[in-house]
Amino acid sequence: MRHKADQILVIACGALAREINDLKKTYGWEHLHLSCIDAGLHHRPALIPDALRKRIQKYRHQYQHIYIAYADCGTQGGIDKVIEEEGANIERLPGAHCYQFFAGTESFAELAQQEPGTFYLTDFLAQHFHRFVIEPLKIDQHPELEAMYFGNYKRLVFLSQTSNEKLLASAKAAAVRLGLEFKHQHCGYGELETELQIKFSGAVNG
């Protein structure tokens, strides 16, 4: 099968699907094709590298360039190992996790220094707090686990991508639920947007 030489495949965490599709529409990146992996692996990062490898191997003969829209995401170098082993023309977002590239590297470092015991939410996690935080940790079934998981946290920081009062209210409710101080920092798409602009805006539309 011939490569789609002027097109780029982005393999992304499902938690970034809306943001990447919005950027694609905003900048007219018709040459960008998106394939998403289950956002539920957020809580099982050890499974992410193998899922990425399978997706790369499925599509590598169709695309000359593949971009991985994951940071390290708790894989302890596992994603980078897959990229190294699967060949050239594959790269990923820089950074340790999505909180860092949404907030910006310097800003995130400041937040972490201000309060190491910080729990972070993005738009996606604020919207799906119960599904992606409470249920996977089984707090809904065993309320006593809440103190075990969150006892060392002091505050919740909502790193918002959009100005959405409903999501802001959900994030505040999550902070109340966990008994944490609340802080809101609007980030937009942060370094996700700037990084993808650098990578994709110069490509030829297909």
Structure commentary:
This protein is α/β, with parallel strands linked by helices and 206 residues long. It folds into 2 domains: 99 residues, 3-Layer(aba) Sandwich (Rossmann fold); 82 residues, no CATH class. Helix content is 44%, strand content 17%. A 4-stranded parallel beta sheet has the order 2-1-3-4, sandwiched between helices. The chain has a 3-stranded parallel beta sheet with strand order 5-6-7. Helix 2 packs parallel to helix 3. The longest helix is centred in the last third of the chain and has 14 residues. The protein starts with 7 loop residues before the first strand and ends in a 6-residue tail after the last helix.
Give the structure's gist in a few sentences.
By secondary structure, the chain is α/β, with parallel strands linked by helices.
The second-level CATH architecture of the largest domain is 3-Layer(aba) Sandwich
CATH topology of the largest domain: Rossmann fold
How would a crystallographer describe the biggest sheet? 4 strands, parallel
| Tally of individual helices | 10
Kindly state the percentage of residues in helix. 40-55%
Described by the principal axes of the CA atoms, the overall outline is: globular
Runs in which pLDDT lies below 50 for 5 or more consecutive residues are none
List the helices and strands and how they pair.
Blueprint: E1 8-13, H1 17-27, E2 32-37, H2 48-59, E3 65-69, H3 78-86, E4 90-92, H4 98-103, H5 105-114, E5 118-121, H6 123-127, H7 129-134, H8 145-150, E6 155-160, H9 165-178, E7 181-186, H10 190-200
Parallel strand pairs: 1-2, 1-3, 3-4, 5-6, 6-7
Helix pairs in contact: 2-3
